[in-house]
UniProtKB/TrEMBL annotation:
Its main location: plastid. The keyword DNA-binding does not apply. One of its GO terms (cellular component) is phenylalanine-tRNA ligase complex. CDD domains: PheRS_beta_core. SUPFAM superfamilies: Anticodon-binding domain of PheRS, Class II aaRS and biotin synthetases, PheT/TilS domain, Putative DNA-binding domain. Binds 2 magnesium ions per tetramer. It is found in: Plastid, Chloroplast. Residues 300-388 form the B5 domain. Coiled coil: none annotated. It catalyses: tRNA(Phe) + L-phenylalanine + ATP = L-phenylalanyl-tRNA(Phe) + AMP + diphosphate + H(+). It comes from Durinskia baltica. This is Phenylalanine--tRNA ligase beta subunit, chloroplastic.
Length: 706
């Protein structure tokens, strides 16, 4: 907002304040001075400040509001001009109003009046100079007055040609109302564009004639022109959220709606109207003003906050003037003065050193808690006047189990070659899952749902990397997903998901380059659980909810040893892989975080075993077996019959080719034998191995390969 320094001096005494001091005070007070401008006004050069304030300070969006703020920052009394206290005797009209007024139910303030005998719209020269210094162009018509009231008081007034309204309404009794339409309506706005208004859009009506989209723009049919002789003036305060929603629906944002979106308050609306009338009367001395419609304003409840001196000392700390060993703090007297300067009503309890504070209605949006009041005290006293100290930490905080689990799990996943990814938690309309939770008021239509899985975003990340020539992306992500259960309740849970594979690699230096197979991918997952010291078992699973993502025959559910479902693992669907133009040898997993945390929490005590001082004997066993027999069943049988010396079984290779019969697979296992008490003889191990081959042949009809 561009403000003329000369105009500010009319409202605040700045004679003894240099420009640099004023800018410093504003900056420390939370108002950023973007630029100091030199504006040519007539034959003179005047200084203007481009000032931006925070979004929750709608009271500072006018020259009057900003002057009160500057007066508080400088500890000066604001200059009260005569016109700011004069109003027509309309306040008595409020008492006779009906509480169920249709206008009152949709906005916090609504006043309309009729102005007749208009002969000139010419704006005074001094008004034009103030507009130029504030960055507005001069049009020498009603727009000048509209812009002036906006910059001076912060209220956006709307004007209509009253004669045009009466010519289009059959009855002579004009009644204004604020309501939605009964059916869709083609509305031609003052800017010349046409908008289709749905039933949810609020409009201001003169009887049944829509004359404006509430709080946004007036109708082209009833807008004023240079030939207007009678004017209908609307001064209203609309709900900020409602105006924002309507602007987004229509794709239309105006200077007027931009003010309402910042939640302006109904504090001096009548005074702003009187100011407009007095300005218009300068060139129209025979002006006739009639009050047409007035709705009883909705008053915000008075917010009371109790402030404790000890809390102020704790938050703000000692002041800069501390020269002794004992710290000195801001005095209660200065605190009372600061609150009074902000126009807060304050009652000070000297015995308990507390303040009972009544917050003015124009600060209801940003002063909500005790800490907000303390911030205001620091802002007025100057945060730079307090000592900056690091807090004295007596004890270090403890890592909770969530953090410890995430740290351990992250370390294990990174050791497996995966990279941590972070992606957006909202998804677009094209989703892999049904019944996803839609947001009521999304920021953009492209991201209007809460994700019910992390896997789609991981696949899209791989797709984008493939498009850009990066064929290697193996990563994992933590995140929250949202699901609807059978009782239509929304459940939120944290999961960790990952994706790997999809590019050719070597399992050892002598092997040929090949794609990652199912058993190798499963082995990487088992390696993860082994690092986490978590016992699991796997079950074949044919995906239903996840059928668009996982391979129908290459998917498994993972369970903890106590039967708790841990998650799902599988190969990407070939149909989806072709659609995304990515490799079909990509594997995905999604694991629930809480069961992992609980299991790690149970494994508090690390169990160690003595390392055997006797050497291992390693044997390889290759055989052809039906592919319907699970690897877990084979391991179970081998461990049962491998005696106490069989310590470990590893899958070295799984092969299917022309030399292997149909519906069969060739497995190569590494068997590790070791004794804790003696050196094993090769003859003993060969005897055990012969027994195992015999069992495989009889039990599973396996064919031993030499």
């Amino acid at each position: 907002m561009q403000i003329s320094l000369r105009w500010l001096k009319e409202l605040v005494n700045l004679e003894t304040i240099s420009l640099e001091t004023l800018i410093t005070k504003l900056t420390l007070g939370g108002f950023e001075v973007e630029e100091v401008l030199e504006v040519e006004v007539g034959n003179e050069t005047t200084i203007a400040l481009d000032i931006s304030s925070t979004a929750n300070r709608s009271d500072s969006l006018s020259i009057q509001g900003l002057s009160l703020e500057i007066a508080a920052l400088l500890n000066h009394n604001p200059i009260e001009l005569p016109y700011s206290t004069k109003t027509y005797p309309w306040f008595q009209e409020f008492e006779s109003l009906n509480s169920n007024d249709p206008i009152q139910t949709n906005c916090s303030g609504f006043i309309s009046l009729i102005i007749e005998n208009l002969t000139s719209f010419q704006s005074p020269k001094w008004l034009q100079q103030k507009l130029i210094s504030s960055g507005f162009s001069v049009e020498n018509n009603l727009t000048d007055f509209q812009n002036y009231i906006l910059i001076e008081t912060g209220y956006p007034l709307e004007f209509y040609d009253f004669d045009k309204i009466t010519s289009k309404v059959p009855t002579s009794q004009i009644q204004l109302s604020l309501k939605g339409l009964d059916e869709p309506f083609e509305f031609v706005a003052r800017n010349g564009n046409q908008y289709l208004l749905e039933e949810s859009v609020l409009v201001v009506k003169a009887n049944n004639l829509p004359i404006s989209i509430a709080g946004i723009i007036s109708s082209n049919e009833t807008s004023y022109s240079k030939d207007t002789k009678s004017l209908l003036v609307e001064a209203s305060i609309f709900n900020a959220a409602q105006i924002r929603q309507q602007s987004r629906i229509l794709g239309l944002r105006t200077d007027r709606s931009a003010r309402y979106e910042k939640s302006i308050k109904n504090t001096t609306l009548l005074e702003a109207l009187y100011r407009f009338i007095s300005l218009l009367r300068i060139e129209n001395p025979k002006l006739i003003c009639k009050l047409h419609t007035i709705a009883k304003p909705i008053k915000d409840p008075v917010r009371r906050i109790k402030l404790n001196y000890e809390k102020v000392k704790q938050v703000l700390g000692p002041i800069q003037t501390t020269k002794t060993i004992d710290d000195q703090y801001i005095s209660p007297k200065l605190i009372t003065e600061a609150l009074t300067r902000l126009q807060f009503q304050v009652t000070y309890d000297t015995q308990n050193v507390t303040w009972d504070i009544s917050i003015p209605s124009f600060r209801n949006d940003d002063i909500v808690r005790e800490i907000d009041v303390i911030e205001e005290i620091g802002r007025l006293y100057g945060f730079n006047n307090f000592l900056t100290r690091l807090p004295k930490i007596k004890t270090l905080g403890n890592e909770d189990w969530d953090y410890r689990t995430r740290k351990k799990l992250t370390s294990c996943l990174i050791n497996l070659g995966l990279t941590e990814l972070i992606q957006y938690s909202l998804v677009n309309q094209e989703s892999f899952f049904k019944n996803e939770i839609e947001l009521i008021n999304p920021l953009v239509k492209e991201y209007s749902k809460l994700r019910s899985s992390l896997l789609p975003n991981l696949l899209k990340a791989v797709e984008e990397n493939f498009k850009k020539g990066n064929s290697v992306l193996e990563g994992f992500e933590y995140g929250h997903i949202f699901l609807i259960d059978s009782s239509s309740d929304i459940r939120e849970k944290e999961v960790v998901a990952g994706i790997f594979g999809g590019f050719p690699t070597k399992s050892n230096w002598s092997a040929n380059i090949s794609q990652l197979g199912w058993f190798e991918a499963k082995g990487r997952m088992e390696q993860l659980f082994k690092k986490l010291n978590i016992g699991t078992y796997w079950k074949s699973y044919q995906p239903i909810r996840e059928k668009n993502i996982f391979h129908f025959y290459c998917t498994a559910e993972i369970f903890l040893s106590n039967g708790t479902k841990l998650g799902i693992f599988g190969q990407v669907s070939p149909i989806l892989a072709k659609k995304l133009n990515i490799s079909t040898n990509i594997y995905l997993f999604e694991l629930e975080f809480d069961p992992i945390k609980y299991q790690i929490q149970q494994n508090k005590l690390a169990v160690y075993q003595d390392y055997s001082s006797y050497p291992k004997i390693i044997k390889d066993l290759s055989f052809i077996i039906k592919d319907t027999i699970s690897f877990s069943k084979i391991k179970e049988v081998l461990y049962l019959n491998g005696s106490q010396f069989l310590k470990e079984i590893n899958l070295l290779d799984e092969y299917r080719g022309q030399s292997i019969p149909s519906h069969h697979t060739s497995l190569c296992l590494q068997l590790i034998f070791q004794s804790d008490f003696e050196t094993l003889q090769n003859e003993n191990v060969e005897t055990i191995l012969a027994n195992l081959t015999s069992i495989l042949t009889k039990e599973f009809h396996a064919t031993i390969r030499v």
